[in-house]
Amino acid sequence: MTTLEEAAFAGDETAFADLAGRYRRELHVHCYRMLASFDDAEDAVQETLLRAWRSLDQYDGRAYFRAWLYRIATNVCLDLTRRRGRRTAAAPPASPGEPAWLQPYPDRLLDEIAPPADQPDAVVVDRETIELTFLIALQALPARQRAALIARDVLGWSAADTAGLLDTSVAAANSALQRARATMQQRLPARRADWSAPRPSAAERELLARFIDAHERCDAEAAIAIAAEELRISMPPNPMVFDGLAACLPLFERGFGPDRDGDWRLVPTSANRLPAAASYLLRPGDTVWRAFKLDVLRVDGGKIVEITTFGYSRFPAFGLPDHLTP
Protein backbone atom coordinates (compact mmCIF):
# COMPACT_ATOMS: atom_id res chain seq x y z
CA MET A 1 0.00 0.00 0.00
CA THR A 2 1.37 3.41 -0.93
CA THR A 3 1.91 5.67 2.07
CA LEU A 4 1.00 9.35 2.15
CA GLU A 5 4.71 10.26 2.07
CA GLU A 6 5.38 8.00 -0.91
CA ALA A 7 2.43 9.41 -2.83
CA ALA A 8 3.43 12.99 -2.00
CA PHE A 9 7.03 12.55 -3.10
CA ALA A 10 5.86 10.75 -6.23
CA GLY A 11 4.08 13.93 -7.30
CA ASP A 12 0.54 13.43 -6.00
CA GLU A 13 -0.54 17.03 -5.36
CA THR A 14 -3.37 16.10 -2.99
CA ALA A 15 -1.09 13.85 -0.96
CA PHE A 16 1.54 16.59 -0.82
CA ALA A 17 -1.03 19.11 0.40
CA ASP A 18 -2.13 16.70 3.14
CA LEU A 19 1.45 15.97 4.18
CA ALA A 20 2.59 19.61 4.22
CA GLY A 21 -0.67 20.61 5.92
CA ARG A 22 0.45 18.80 9.05
CA TYR A 23 3.02 21.53 9.53
CA ARG A 24 0.96 24.50 8.39
CA ARG A 25 0.20 25.99 11.80
CA GLU A 26 3.73 25.70 13.16
CA LEU A 27 5.10 27.13 9.89
CA HIS A 28 2.67 30.01 10.31
CA VAL A 29 3.94 30.63 13.85
CA HIS A 30 7.53 30.48 12.58
CA CYS A 31 6.78 33.04 9.88
CA TYR A 32 4.91 35.15 12.41
CA ARG A 33 7.99 35.28 14.62
CA MET A 34 10.06 36.31 11.62
CA LEU A 35 7.58 38.97 10.42
CA ALA A 36 5.47 39.94 13.51
CA SER A 37 2.41 40.13 11.25
CA PHE A 38 -0.35 37.52 11.23
CA ASP A 39 -1.39 38.47 7.70
CA ASP A 40 2.15 38.55 6.31
CA ALA A 41 2.79 35.17 7.92
CA GLU A 42 -0.25 33.77 6.13
CA ASP A 43 1.12 35.03 2.81
CA ALA A 44 4.52 33.57 3.66
CA VAL A 45 3.08 30.12 4.40
CA GLN A 46 1.15 30.12 1.14
CA GLU A 47 4.34 31.01 -0.74
CA THR A 48 6.31 28.40 1.22
CA LEU A 49 3.97 25.58 0.26
CA LEU A 50 3.91 26.74 -3.35
CA ARG A 51 7.71 26.84 -3.52
CA ALA A 52 7.95 23.45 -1.83
CA TRP A 53 5.58 21.87 -4.35
CA ARG A 54 7.39 23.42 -7.30
CA SER A 55 10.80 22.28 -6.02
CA LEU A 56 9.73 18.85 -4.78
CA ASP A 57 12.11 17.20 -7.22
CA GLN A 58 14.97 18.86 -5.31
CA TYR A 59 14.05 17.16 -2.05
CA ASP A 60 16.35 14.16 -1.79
CA GLY A 61 15.00 12.73 1.44
CA ARG A 62 18.22 13.16 3.39
CA ALA A 63 16.89 16.11 5.39
CA TYR A 64 13.76 15.83 7.48
CA PHE A 65 10.78 17.01 5.46
CA ARG A 66 9.79 19.38 8.27
CA ALA A 67 13.27 20.92 8.35
CA TRP A 68 13.18 21.32 4.56
CA LEU A 69 9.89 23.23 4.84
CA TYR A 70 11.34 25.46 7.56
CA ARG A 71 14.29 26.29 5.34
CA ILE A 72 11.96 27.32 2.51
CA ALA A 73 9.77 29.31 4.92
CA THR A 74 12.78 31.15 6.33
CA ASN A 75 13.95 32.13 2.86
CA VAL A 76 10.45 33.34 2.00
CA CYS A 77 10.45 35.50 5.14
CA LEU A 78 13.90 36.88 4.34
CA ASP A 79 12.63 37.84 0.89
CA LEU A 80 9.52 39.50 2.37
CA THR A 81 11.64 41.36 4.93
CA ARG A 82 13.88 42.76 2.18
CA ARG A 83 10.85 43.95 0.25
CA ARG A 84 9.31 45.45 3.38
CA GLY A 85 12.59 47.23 4.12
CA ARG A 86 12.57 48.87 0.71
CA ARG A 87 8.97 50.03 1.26
CA THR A 88 9.61 51.53 4.69
CA ALA A 89 13.09 52.97 4.21
CA ALA A 90 11.72 56.21 2.81
CA ALA A 91 9.20 56.56 5.66
CA PRO A 92 10.77 55.65 9.03
CA PRO A 93 8.43 55.40 12.03
CA ALA A 94 7.65 58.59 13.88
CA SER A 95 8.54 57.00 17.23
CA PRO A 96 10.63 54.07 18.52
CA GLY A 97 7.52 52.07 19.42
CA GLU A 98 6.17 48.87 17.97
CA PRO A 99 6.69 48.13 14.27
CA ALA A 100 3.71 49.37 12.30
CA TRP A 101 2.99 45.88 10.98
CA LEU A 102 2.70 44.24 14.44
CA GLN A 103 -0.44 42.12 14.84
CA PRO A 104 -1.65 39.85 17.67
CA TYR A 105 -1.79 36.05 17.45
CA PRO A 106 -4.90 34.32 18.89
CA ASP A 107 -4.11 31.71 21.53
CA ARG A 108 -6.85 29.49 20.16
CA LEU A 109 -4.79 29.09 16.97
CA LEU A 110 -1.54 28.59 18.86
CA ASP A 111 -3.28 25.69 20.59
CA GLU A 112 -3.72 23.95 17.22
CA ILE A 113 -0.09 22.87 17.29
CA ALA A 114 -0.02 19.30 18.55
CA PRO A 115 1.70 18.66 21.91
CA PRO A 116 4.86 16.54 21.86
CA ALA A 117 3.01 13.46 23.12
CA ASP A 118 0.88 13.43 19.98
CA GLN A 119 3.50 14.66 17.52
CA PRO A 120 7.07 14.29 18.82
CA ASP A 121 8.64 16.84 16.48
CA ALA A 122 6.00 19.54 17.00
CA VAL A 123 7.10 22.89 18.39
CA VAL A 124 5.85 23.88 21.83
CA VAL A 125 4.73 27.51 21.77
CA ASP A 126 6.01 28.89 25.08
CA ARG A 127 5.03 32.34 26.21
CA GLU A 128 8.59 33.62 26.19
CA THR A 129 8.90 32.90 22.45
CA ILE A 130 5.58 34.41 21.32
CA GLU A 131 4.91 37.29 23.74
CA LEU A 132 4.64 40.70 22.08
CA THR A 133 7.72 42.09 23.82
CA PHE A 134 9.77 39.24 22.37
CA LEU A 135 8.28 39.77 18.90
CA ILE A 136 9.05 43.49 19.00
CA ALA A 137 12.63 42.86 20.10
CA LEU A 138 13.06 40.33 17.30
CA GLN A 139 12.08 42.93 14.74
CA ALA A 140 15.03 45.10 15.80
CA LEU A 141 17.43 42.38 14.61
CA PRO A 142 18.74 42.11 11.07
CA ALA A 143 16.71 39.41 9.37
CA ARG A 144 19.45 36.76 9.23
CA GLN A 145 20.31 37.29 12.89
CA ARG A 146 16.61 36.93 13.66
CA ALA A 147 16.48 33.66 11.75
CA ALA A 148 19.59 32.34 13.52
CA LEU A 149 18.20 33.16 16.96
CA ILE A 150 14.82 31.59 16.20
CA ALA A 151 16.47 28.44 14.88
CA ARG A 152 18.80 27.99 17.85
CA ASP A 153 16.94 29.44 20.83
CA VAL A 154 13.31 28.83 19.83
CA LEU A 155 13.38 25.72 17.64
CA GLY A 156 16.38 24.21 19.38
CA TRP A 157 18.28 23.42 16.19
CA SER A 158 21.97 22.58 16.20
CA ALA A 159 24.63 24.95 14.93
CA ALA A 160 25.09 22.80 11.83
CA ASP A 161 21.37 22.70 11.08
CA THR A 162 21.10 26.46 11.59
CA ALA A 163 23.98 27.01 9.17
CA GLY A 164 22.17 24.84 6.66
CA LEU A 165 18.98 26.82 7.20
CA LEU A 166 20.83 30.04 6.38
CA ASP A 167 23.02 28.49 3.68
CA THR A 168 26.16 29.68 5.43
CA SER A 169 29.03 28.33 7.52
CA VAL A 170 28.71 27.20 11.13
CA ALA A 171 31.09 29.97 12.18
CA ALA A 172 28.98 32.63 10.43
CA ALA A 173 25.77 31.23 11.89
CA ASN A 174 27.26 31.23 15.40
CA SER A 175 28.48 34.79 14.95
CA ALA A 176 25.00 35.92 13.89
CA LEU A 177 23.52 34.12 16.89
CA GLN A 178 25.87 35.76 19.38
CA ARG A 179 25.15 39.24 18.02
CA ALA A 180 21.41 38.52 18.12
CA ARG A 181 21.55 37.27 21.72
CA ALA A 182 23.44 40.38 22.82
CA THR A 183 20.83 42.67 21.25
CA MET A 184 17.90 40.70 22.67
CA GLN A 185 19.42 40.78 26.17
CA GLN A 186 19.45 44.56 26.01
CA ARG A 187 15.84 44.80 24.82
CA LEU A 188 14.00 42.15 26.85
CA PRO A 189 12.73 42.52 30.45
CA ALA A 190 15.13 41.10 33.02
CA ARG A 191 12.45 38.80 34.47
CA ARG A 192 11.46 37.29 31.15
CA ALA A 193 13.02 33.96 32.18
CA ASP A 194 10.32 33.71 34.88
CA TRP A 195 7.53 33.47 32.31
CA SER A 196 6.67 29.81 32.63
CA ALA A 197 2.89 29.67 32.34
CA PRO A 198 1.78 28.32 28.94
CA ARG A 199 -1.18 30.73 29.02
CA PRO A 200 -2.50 33.52 31.27
CA SER A 201 -2.27 32.63 34.97
CA ALA A 202 -5.12 32.79 37.48
CA ALA A 203 -3.73 36.08 38.82
CA GLU A 204 -3.58 37.54 35.31
CA ARG A 205 -7.13 36.42 34.59
CA GLU A 206 -8.31 38.06 37.81
CA LEU A 207 -6.60 41.31 36.82
CA LEU A 208 -8.19 41.04 33.37
CA ALA A 209 -11.60 40.68 35.05
CA ARG A 210 -10.94 43.89 36.99
CA PHE A 211 -9.85 45.60 33.76
CA ILE A 212 -13.11 44.54 32.10
CA ASP A 213 -15.20 45.62 35.10
CA ALA A 214 -13.59 49.06 35.17
CA HIS A 215 -14.38 49.55 31.49
CA GLU A 216 -17.98 48.40 31.71
CA ARG A 217 -18.62 50.69 34.72
CA CYS A 218 -16.61 53.50 33.09
CA ASP A 219 -14.66 53.75 36.32
CA ALA A 220 -11.39 55.55 35.61
CA GLU A 221 -10.25 55.27 39.24
CA ALA A 222 -10.63 51.48 39.15
CA ALA A 223 -8.67 51.30 35.91
CA ILE A 224 -5.90 53.47 37.33
CA ALA A 225 -5.75 51.35 40.50
CA ILE A 226 -4.63 48.26 38.56
CA ALA A 227 -2.10 50.12 36.41
CA ALA A 228 1.60 50.39 37.21
CA GLU A 229 3.32 53.76 37.42
CA GLU A 230 5.42 52.69 34.42
CA LEU A 231 2.34 51.81 32.35
CA ARG A 232 2.97 51.93 28.63
CA ILE A 233 0.19 52.12 26.04
CA SER A 234 0.76 51.71 22.29
CA MET A 235 -1.60 51.38 19.35
CA PRO A 236 0.11 49.88 16.29
CA PRO A 237 0.09 50.85 13.45
CA ASN A 238 -0.33 54.30 15.03
CA PRO A 239 3.23 55.36 15.98
CA MET A 240 2.09 57.17 19.14
CA VAL A 241 3.29 55.64 22.42
CA PHE A 242 2.25 56.77 25.92
CA ASP A 243 4.93 56.10 28.54
CA GLY A 244 4.12 56.38 32.23
CA LEU A 245 0.79 56.46 34.05
CA ALA A 246 0.67 60.27 34.01
CA ALA A 247 0.94 60.31 30.22
CA CYS A 248 -1.86 57.74 29.96
CA LEU A 249 -4.38 59.56 32.19
CA PRO A 250 -5.92 61.56 29.29
CA LEU A 251 -6.73 58.24 27.59
CA PHE A 252 -8.66 57.07 30.65
CA GLU A 253 -10.56 60.34 30.74
CA ARG A 254 -11.33 60.06 27.03
CA GLY A 255 -12.59 56.50 27.37
CA PHE A 256 -14.52 56.77 30.65
CA GLY A 257 -15.36 60.44 31.15
CA PRO A 258 -18.60 62.31 30.41
CA ASP A 259 -17.47 63.10 26.86
CA ARG A 260 -16.77 59.45 25.98
CA ASP A 261 -18.07 58.00 22.71
CA GLY A 262 -20.44 55.56 24.43
CA ASP A 263 -20.63 52.61 26.83
CA TRP A 264 -18.47 49.50 26.85
CA ARG A 265 -18.88 45.78 26.89
CA LEU A 266 -15.76 43.61 26.92
CA VAL A 267 -15.14 39.94 26.15
CA PRO A 268 -12.14 38.16 27.70
CA THR A 269 -9.77 36.37 25.37
CA SER A 270 -6.02 35.76 25.06
CA ALA A 271 -3.34 36.59 22.52
CA ASN A 272 0.34 35.72 22.35
CA ARG A 273 -0.14 33.78 25.62
CA LEU A 274 -1.21 37.02 27.34
CA PRO A 275 -4.57 38.13 28.77
CA ALA A 276 -6.58 40.23 26.35
CA ALA A 277 -9.99 41.86 26.08
CA ALA A 278 -12.13 42.57 23.04
CA SER A 279 -13.99 45.87 23.44
CA TYR A 280 -17.39 46.69 21.98
CA LEU A 281 -18.83 50.21 22.00
CA LEU A 282 -22.50 51.19 22.29
CA ARG A 283 -22.79 54.67 20.85
CA PRO A 284 -25.67 56.98 21.77
CA GLY A 285 -28.75 56.08 19.74
CA ASP A 286 -27.35 52.69 18.65
CA THR A 287 -28.98 49.38 19.58
CA VAL A 288 -25.95 47.07 19.56
CA TRP A 289 -22.40 47.13 20.85
CA ARG A 290 -20.08 47.23 17.85
CA ALA A 291 -16.53 45.85 17.64
CA PHE A 292 -14.04 48.56 18.55
CA LYS A 293 -10.60 47.39 19.75
CA LEU A 294 -8.51 44.57 21.21
CA ASP A 295 -6.32 45.25 24.25
CA VAL A 296 -3.46 42.85 25.02
CA LEU A 297 -2.14 43.21 28.57
CA ARG A 298 1.26 42.54 30.06
CA VAL A 299 1.21 42.10 33.81
CA ASP A 300 4.09 42.33 36.27
CA GLY A 301 4.03 42.57 40.04
CA GLY A 302 0.24 42.41 40.18
CA LYS A 303 -0.19 45.49 37.98
CA ILE A 304 -0.75 46.12 34.29
CA VAL A 305 2.55 47.40 32.93
CA GLU A 306 1.71 47.47 29.24
CA ILE A 307 -1.38 47.65 27.03
CA THR A 308 -1.03 47.06 23.31
CA THR A 309 -4.20 48.11 21.53
CA PHE A 310 -5.15 46.73 18.12
CA GLY A 311 -8.10 47.49 15.88
CA TYR A 312 -11.15 45.25 15.54
CA SER A 313 -10.03 43.90 12.16
CA ARG A 314 -8.36 41.04 14.07
CA PHE A 315 -11.64 39.90 15.67
CA PRO A 316 -12.45 37.15 13.08
CA ALA A 317 -9.14 35.38 13.78
CA PHE A 318 -10.09 35.32 17.47
CA GLY A 319 -13.51 33.87 16.72
CA LEU A 320 -15.14 37.08 17.95
CA PRO A 321 -18.39 38.53 16.54
CA ASP A 322 -18.55 41.97 14.98
CA HIS A 323 -21.24 43.10 17.41
CA LEU A 324 -23.00 42.18 20.66
CA THR A 325 -26.71 42.50 21.36
CA PRO A 326 -28.28 43.53 24.69
TrEMBL record:
Q: What is its EC number?
A: 2.7.7.6
Enzyme class, one word? transferase
Assembly, per entry: Interacts transiently with the RNA polymerase catalytic core formed by RpoA, RpoB, RpoC and RpoZ (2 alpha, 1 beta, 1 beta' and 1 omega subunit) to form the RNA polymerase holoenzyme that can initiate transcription.
UniProt key word Ribonucleoprotein: no
Keyword set for this entry? Nucleotidyltransferase, Sigma factor, Transcription, Transcription regulation, Transferase
Cross-referenced Gene3D superfamilies: 1.10.1740.10, 3.10.450.50, Winged helix-like DNA-binding domain superfamily/Winged helix DNA-binding domain
The chain positions of domain RNA polymerase sigma factor 70 region 4 type read 137-184
GO BP annotations of the record are: DNA-templated transcription initiation
Indicate the segments forming the RNA polymerase sigma-70 region domain, all copies. 20-87
Q: Name one Pfam family in it.
A: Sigma70_r2
Family named by the database record: Belongs to the sigma-70 factor family. ECF subfamily.
Give the species this sequence originates from: Kribbella sp. HUAS MG21
GO molecular function terms noted in the UniProt entry: DNA binding; DNA-directed RNA polymerase activity; sigma factor activity
Tell whether Cytoplasm is among the UniProt keywords: no
What is the recorded name of this protein? Answer: RNA polymerase subunit sigma-70
Domain named SnoaL-like is located at 209-307
